[in-house]
Design goal:
Chain A is mainly alpha-helical. Helices cover 55% and strands 5% of the residues of chain A. Chain A has helices spanning 38-55, 60-107, 120-123, 144-149, 155-181, 190-197, 208-223, 231-246, 250-253, 256-275, 278-289, 295-315, 339-369, 376-391, 395-398, 401-409, 424-427, 443-466, 476-500, 505-508, 520-536, 540-550, 556-573, 578-586, 603-606, 626-635, 658-671, 717-727, 746-756, and strands at 110-112, 141-143, 619-620, 624-625, 640-644, 652-657, 680-682, 698-699, 710-712, 731-736, 739-745. In chain A, strands 3-5-6 form a three-stranded mixed sheet. A three-stranded mixed sheet of chain A has the order 4-7-8. In chain A, strand 9, helix 28 and strand 10 (731-736) form a beta-alpha-beta unit. Chains A, B: Keywords: Antiport, ATP-binding, CBS domain, Cell membrane, Chloride, Endosome, Glycoprotein, Ion transport, Lysosome, Membrane, Nucleotide-binding, Repeat, Transmembrane, Transmembrane helix, Transport.
Chain lengths: 767, 767
C-alpha cells in the first residue's frame, strides 16, 4: 500500500484506455483471422454508452441520438428479421426457391408447353392429377422425351439423359459461381458462424458477395439434386443480412462484441424462416450456434424470430395459414409400448450420426490433405453425376427431398394416393380407412419399402460425400430424410406386426382387430428428429423445431425420448457434433463450452516461456528508448507485451498489444515532432526525469491496458480454461507472489488441450 | 522469475488445496446464510471425479462405482422427475389437489349426501347437469342451506355464511401449520430459489419439513379461496424433492455447485408438472430461475421434464390424452388487424405488472417494517374473510380460478352453456353457431361482462394483498386470471364492434356479414400471457408455456407480440420483475445477471479498506505465531484473510478463509501435540528455520487458496462485476503493481450497486 501511488494517481475517470487523450485511429481494431477480446469490447461499448448518456440532456438532438442509440438494438434485429425474410424467403424461398427451385427441379424432367416458366404443379393445376403416381398424365406438361422423341421408344433413356444433363449443368454453374465470386459461400457456414460468434474475425465471411452468391447458388445446388438442404445455408444468409444491417448502426459496426449479439439474433431469425419455427430458432441459436447468450440476446433473438415469423405469416407461403412446413395431423394417440421402437430409432439416429461424422471428417481430411482437393469443380460434377444417375430410376430419390419428407410424415388417409398407402382397405375402394378395417399391406407397400430401403442406402452414402463440397450445402434436410425413411420402414413393420399379431400381449390391450393403432408417419417424424439429433447433437432446440415444424405438440414425449437416446448413443462414440468436428478440422480457435477440461495441469505448465524457451519479451514502464521498443517488436512475433515496473522487481503494471504499439508509434511519428529513435518511451502517468539534452519522450499510456487478467502459477488449468471461456479472454498473465512469470493465450490453451487429447497441437492454426 | 520457487516448488499435483495431506473435516463447508464460492466447488468436484476415474481400472467394484458416479446425474434427475410427479402431482394435484382441493373447495358450498368424499362434479355425475349455470339442480348434492334450513327462506344467507366459515377455517389451518412447523413453506418460494441457485446457503429451505407442510398447506390455501395459485409453490416443492434426492448421491450432496445443477433441473420438472409444459419448464428454469445454466444442465433439465411429462402422460390426469391443462381449439385464424388489440392487451399487462410490483412491494415493506407484520395469522384470516365475503355474490369470483380461466379461454360453441356464450343465434335454438349467423350479444353477455369487470377489480386488489402472506401462494394463476378477464372483455368488445360495423374498412376485407371472425377466447389467452409477462418479465418461456398449456401453436405471433409489448411497457416503469423485487426486499445477496452495471467507478473505490478505515487484516506467510493469528481472527469480522510474503513487500501469496483457519487450528490442537500459543504458523511448503527451543510449528498450507482471484486497482467496476457474475466469486483481491491493496467481496459490490442506485446500502444483509 505504501508504493501504490506511482502510476495510479490519475483521476477516477481514467480507465482501461486513458480517455483524456485523443484516441488514436486504428487502436482497438483487429487483424483478420485473429481472436477478439470480449472484455475490452464490452468496456468500449459501455464507455460509448455513457458518453451518449451524459450528453443526453444537452439538446434535443443529443436526446434523439440517445434514443436512437437505445433502440438501435431492436431496430437492427427488426431489419434483420425483415430482409432475411424478404431476401432469403421471399426472393429465395418463395419466388426463387419455392418457384425457381421447383421450376429448375422440374426442368430436369420436362417443360410446360403453355408457359415455360410454370413448374409441373402450376402447369397441371387444371388437370387435378398432381399426385406423384399420376404425374405424367397432364396434357400440357411434356417430358423431354415426349418433346424431342415424341411417343417413340427410348423415351425413358432420353428422360434419364436430360435429367442428368440438367443436374450437371446446375451443379457446374453453382460451383463455378462460388469459386469465382465468393469462396466463402460454400458449405453450410454454421461451423464458421460458431467460430465467429465465439470471438474470431473472418473478414468477408458475412459480406454482401457471400450473401448474393450463396443465395443464388443455393437454389442451383438444391435443384441439381445433390443430397443437400437449404436450411443450414439460410442461417448463414441470415447472418450475412444481420452483419450488413449492423453497419447502419455505429453501435454495432464498430464493436465486435455487440455485432455478435446481432448475429446471434440473426441466426435465430434464419431458422425461424427456414423452418417456420420461431421458438425453435431462438433455441437453436442458444444451444447450437451462440457462444455467449445473455438474456438480452435471448430477447433480441426472440424479437427477430417474431418479426421473421410475422412476415412469414403475412405472406402465407404454405397456403394453410400455418407457419409450418410439414403440417401433419394424426388420428390416433401413441401408446406406451411404442416407446420401444421410438428408442430404437433414437439408437439408429445416434449410430448414423457417429458414423456420418467419422466418415465425413475422414473424407474432408483426405480432400484437404491430398491433391484431390485442388479440383473442386470436377469433384462437384462427379458427385452430381453419380447422384443423378443413381437417383433417377428410384421415384423416392428422384423426388425433391422436402417433398419426400412430407410424404413420409403424412398419415395414410382415404385421399392419399401414394404407393406407401396402398393398403387392402384402400384397394377395395372402401373409403373407410383409417376408421375402417383392413390395414394389411398390399404388394404396392412392400415394393415401396424396397425402394425406400435402396433410397436410404443411397442417401446415406451420397450425404457423406456431399457435405463439404464447394457448393452451399445444408445437412438438415438430408439427415431428416434418412431418419424419415428409416422411421417409416420401422413404422410400417410395427404396423404389420400389430395387424397380424393383434392378440400378442403387447398389442392386445390397445390394438383391437382391424383398428388403426399404429401411425407410420409418426415413426418417420421421430426417426427424422433422431437422425438430425445424432448428427448435430442438438436436444431441446431440435424437439422444438420438429414439433413446430409438424404441429405435433402431443408427440413431445416420443420426440424427447428418441432425441435424448440419439444424443447418448452418439456421445458414446465421440462427443463432437458435426459442426464442432468441422471446426476442429479447419483449425479454428474455438474453445468449446460443452467439452470439460478434466486434466490436472497447472497454469505454469501451459504458460510461455517454457523451460528451455527464451525469456518472455517484456517492456519496462519508463526506461526504454523507442529503438529498444522497436527492436523488441521486430524480434518477436507475439501479439502483445506485458509492461513491468523494472527488470529487477518484475512487478506487473499492464499489458500492451503489438498492433496498438505499432499504430501508436506511427501516429506519433506523423503528428508529434521531436520523436527520435533515442526518445524515451514511458507508460506512466508522468514523464520520467530525463537528462536535459534528451529528445522529447513518447507517452504510450493511452494504449496500456492497466487491468490485465492475471492468475497465479498454481492456478489449475481447469479454472484458467473456465475464465477464458466465460470472460472471452485473449490472453492472461501468470504471476507468482506478485511477480510476472509468463503468459497464456487462447492458442496456448487450445494447443495444450489438443496435446492432452493426444492430437496434433499444430492443428490449431490461428491466434 | 528469480524468486519464483519460494512457496511454489511443490509437485504438480498440488492444487488449490494440498491434497497430499489428509483433508481436515469441515474445511470447505459453509455457514448458513453465506455465499458459496463456485470456482472452489467446481474444482472440488473435478478433483473427486479424477480420483474416481484414476481408480476405475483397479477393480470391477471401482469400475461400477465410476459408472454409478457418471450416471448419478441422470439418475438423480430421473428420481426428481418421478417423485415430484408422484408427490406433487399424483399425491397433491391429483388425489389431493384435483380431488381434495376440489372437494375442499366444493365443501364451502355444500356436501354430497350419497358419499361425503365426493366433490360436486363426482356427486352429480349421473344427472349430466354439471355446468355452472345448472349447478344446483342435482338431487344428491345439498348446499349447506338445504341441509340445515331445508328449502326455507334465508338459504342464500346460510350458504354465504358457510362459504365464509369454511374459507376461514382452511386459511387458519394453513397459516397455523406453516407458522408452527415450517416457516419457510410460505410464499411462492421462487425468489429464495433464485437466490439459492445464484450461490447462497439457506439451510432447511429445501428440507423435508418444508416439502410436507408446503404440500398440505398449499391445498388448504387454494381451497380457502384466497387469490393465489399452486404453480409457483409447486416449483418450490419440486426443488425440495430434488434437494432431498440429491442426498442419495455424495457427488451432489457434498458439493454445493453440483447440487444447484440438480435444483435447476428440478425447477424445470416442477413447471413441467404444474402446467404440463415440459419445454416451457426447461425455458422457465433457464430464463427465470437459474443463475448458471450450462448446456449440461439444459440436457438434465430437459430429461427431468421428459420424465415428469412422461409420468403425467401415463396417468392422463385431464382425461384427453393430452398433457395440457387448458386445451383449446379455435375455429378461425387471426387477422393482421387484430394485432392492434393484442398489443393493447400487452400494454395493459405491462401496466398491471408495474403497478402490481410497486403496490405489492410497498405493502410487503410495510408488513416488514411495522408492528403489523407480527400477526401473520390474523392477517391471513382477515384477507381470507374479505376475499370470501366479497367473492361469494359474484359467480366469476366464487368459482375456482383455474376453472374460470378455462371458461374464459374456451371458444363459444353450440354446446357451451356459459352465460358468456348467450349470443342471439344460440338463444334462438339454432345450433349453427359458430358457422351460423347471429353473433349479436344478448343481455346475458352484457351482464356477464359487468360481473367480469367487477371480478377484475376484485382480483387486482386482492392479489396485491395476498402475495406475501404467510401461506404458500403462487402468482401465475391470479395473474393469468386477471389477464384472461381483461382479454375476454376486450375480445367481446371487438367482436361486437365487428358485428355491428362489418362494413368498416378494417373489418370489410375479412369479416363478412354474420361470419364468426373474432375469437374472444383467443383474446383471453393473449391477455393472460401479457399479464403474467408484466409481473414476471418472462418472454420466451412464457410464450412456450402458454402455447404448451393451450395447444395454440398457430397463435404464436399474437402471443409473442403481446408478451414483448408487456415486457417493454413494464420495463419502462422499473426493470425488476416481482421475484427480483422480493429478493431485494429481503436483502439477499443476489447479483442479477439482467441488470447492467453502467457506472464508471474503479475497483479501488469499492475495495476495503476505504480511505479512513483501519488497514486490511493480512497474514504473513511464515513469521506469525499462533497467538498473533488468533488475535487477528478475534479482532476482525471478515470472512477471510489475504496471505502475503512479508509486511514490507506486500506481495500476495494466497487467501485463507476464517472458517477454515478456525477449524484447522482446532483440529491441530486436538490431534497434533506440542502446538502452543507461541508456535510459529506458516503457509509455505517448508517450515521456516526456527530457533532450537521454539515449539513445534503449525503448517496451514492445506487450507491456503494459492490461486486467489486478483484484479488491479485500475480495473473498472463493470469488469469486476462481470467477473463476479460469470465466475461466481465470493471475493477478489485488489493489487497495484503486484502489491496487495485491498479486497472486494460480493457484499461490497452489492452495497456499491445499491449506493449508485441511490438505495440504502445497508439493505444488503448477508455475506
Amino acid at each position: 500500500m505504501s508504493n501504490g501511488g506511482g502510476g495510479g494517481g490519475a483521476s477516477s475517470s481514467t480507465h482501461l484506455l486513458d480517455l483524456l487523450e485523443e484516441p488514436i485511429p486504428g487502436v482497438g481494431t483487429y487483424d483478420d483471422f485473429h481472436t477478439i477480446d470480449w472484455v475490452r469490447e464490452k468496456c468500449k461499448d459501455r464507455e460509448r454508452h455513457r458518453k451518449i448518456n451524459s450528453k443526453k440532456k444537452e439538446s434535443a438532438w443529443e436526446f434523439t441520438k440517445s434514443l436512437y442509440d437505445a433502440w438501435s438494438g431492436w431496430l437492427v434485429v427488426t431489419l434483420t428479421g425483415l430482409p432475411i425474410f424478404f431476401l432469403a424467403e421471399t426472393a429465395l424461398s418463395l419466388s426463387l426457391s419455392h418457384a425457381a427451385a421447383d421450376w429448375l427441379n422440374d426442368l430436369k424432367e420436362g417443360v410446360c408447353l403453355s408457359a415455360m416458366w410454370f413448374n409441373h404443379e402450376q402447369c397441371c393445376w387444371d388437370s387435378n392429377e398432381t399426385t406423384f403416381a399420376e404425374r405424367d398424365k397432364c396434357p400440357q406438361w411434356k417430358t423431354w422425351a415426349e418433346l424431342i422423341l415424341g411417343q417413340g421408344p427410348g423415351s425413358y433413356i432420353m428422360n434419364y439423359f436430360m435429367f442428368t444433363f440438367w443436374a450437371l449443368s446446375f451443379a457446374f454453374l453453382a460451383v463455378s459461381l462460388v469459386k469465382v465470386f465468393a469462396p466463402y459461400a460454400c458449405g453450410s457456414g454454421i461451423p464458421e458462424i460458431k467460430t465467429i460468434l465465439s470471438g474470431f474475425i473472418i473478414r468477408g465471411y458475412l459480406g454482401k458477395w457471400t450473401l448474393m452468391i450463396k443465395t443464388i447458388t443455393l437454389v442451383l445446388a438444391v435443384a441439381s439434386g445433390l443430397s443437400l438442404g437449404k436450411e443450414g445455408p439460410l442461417v448463414h444468409v441470415a447472418c450475412c443480412c444481420g452483419n450488413i444491417f449492423s453497419y447502419l448502426f455505429p453501435k454495432y459496426s464498430k464493436n465486435e462484441a455487440k455485432k455478435r449479439e446481432v448475429l446471434s439474433a440473426a441466426s435465430a431469425a434464419g431458422v425461424s424462416v427456414a423452418f417456420g419455427a420461431p421458438i425453435g430458432g431462438v433455441l437453436f441459436s442458444l444451444e447450437e450456434v451462440s457462444y455467449y447468450f445473455p438474456l438480452k440476446t435471448l430477447w433480441r433473438s426472440f424479437f427477430a424470430a417474431l418479426v421473421a415469423a410475422f412476415v412469414l405469416r403475412s405472406i402465407n407461403p404454405f397456403g394453410n395459414s400455418r407457419l409450418v412446413l410439414f403440417y401433419v395431423e394424426y388420428h390416433t394417440p401413441w401408446y406406451l409400448f411404442e416407446l420401444f421402437p421410438f428408442i430404437l430409432l433414437g439408437v439408429f439416429g445416434g449410430l448414423w450420426g457417429a458414423f456420418f461424422i467419422r466418415a465425413n471428417i475422414a473424407w474432408c481430411r483426405r480432400r484437404k490433405s491430398t491433391r484431390f482437393g485442388k479440383y473442386p469443380v470436377l469433384e462437384v460434377i462427379t458427385v452430381a453425376a453419380i447422384t443423378a444417375i443413381v437417383a433417377f430410376p428410384n421415384p423416392y430419390t428422384r423426388q425433391n427431398t422436402s417433398e419426400l419428407i412430407k410424404e413420409l410424415f403424412t398419415d395414410c388417409g382415404p385421399l392419399e394416393s401414394s404407393q406407401l398407402c396402398q393398403y387392402r382397405s384402400q384397394m377395395n375402394g372402401s373409403q373407410a380407412y383409417p376408421a375402417g378395417s383392413d390395414a394389411a399391406a398390399t404388394p404396392g407397400v412392400y415394393s415401396a419399402m424396397w425402394q425406400l430401403s435402396l433410397a436410404l442406402i443411397f442417401k446415406i452414402i451420397m450425404t457423406i460425400f456431399t457435405f463439404g463440397l464447394k457448393v452451399p450445402s445444408g445437412l438438415f434436410i438430408p439427415s431428416m430424410a434418412i431418419g424419415a425413411i428409416a422411421g417409416r420402414i420401422v413404422g410400417i413393420a410395427v404396423e404389420q406386426l400389430a395387424y397380424y399379431h393383434h392378440d400378442w400381449f403387447l398389442f392386445r390391450e390397445w390394438c383391437e382387430v382391424g383398428a388403426d393403432c399404429i401411425t407410420p408417419g409418426l415413426y418417420a417424424m421421430v426417426g427424422a428428429a433422431a437422425c438430425l439429433g445424432g448428427v448435430t447433437r442438438m436436444t431441446v432446440s431440435l424437439v422444438v423445431i420438429v414439433f413446430e415444424l409438424t404441429g405435433g405438440l402431443e408427440y413431445i414425449v416420443p420426440l424427447m425420448a428418441a432425441v435424448m437416446t440419439s444424443k447418448w448413443v452418439g456421445d458414446a462414440f465421440g462427443r463432437e457434433g458435426i459442426y464442432e468436428a468441422h471446426i476442429r478440422l479447419n483449425g479454428y480457435p474455438f474453445l468449446d463450452a460443452k467439452e470439460e477440461f478434466t486434466h490436472t495441469t497447472l497454469a505454469r505448465e501451459v504458460m510461455r516461456p517454457r523451460r528451455n524457451d527464451l525469456p518472455l519479451a517484456v517492456l519496462t514502464q519508463d526506461d526504454m528508448t523507442l529503438a529498444e521498443l522497436q527492436n523488441i517488436i521486430s524480434q518477436t512475433s507475439c501479439n502483445g507485451f506485458p509492461v513491468i515496473v523494472s527488470k529487477e522487481s518484475q512487478r506487473l503494471v499492464g499489458f500492451a498489444l503489438r498492433r496498438d504499439i505499432t499504430i501508436a508509434i506511427e501516429n506519433a511519428r506523423r503528428k508529434q515532432e521531436g520523436i527520435m529513435l533515442n526518445s524515451r518511451v514511458y507508460f506512466t502517468q508522468h514523464a520520467p526525469t530525463l537528462p536535459a539534452d534528451s529528445p522529447r519522450p513518447l507517452k504510450l499510456r493511452s494504449i496500456l491496458d492497466m487491468s490485465p487478467f492475471t492468475v497465479t502459477d498454481h492456478t489449475p488449468m481447469e479454472i484458467v480454461v473456465d475464465i477464458f471461456r466465460k470472460l472471452g479472454l485473449r490472453q492472461c498473465l501468470v504471476t507468482h507472489n506478485g511477480r510476472l512469470l509468463g503468459i497464456i493465450t487462447k492458442k496456448d490453451i487450445l494447443r495444450h488441450m489438443a496435446q492432452m487429447a493426444n492430437q496434433d497441437p499444430e492443428s490449431i492454426m490461428f491466434n
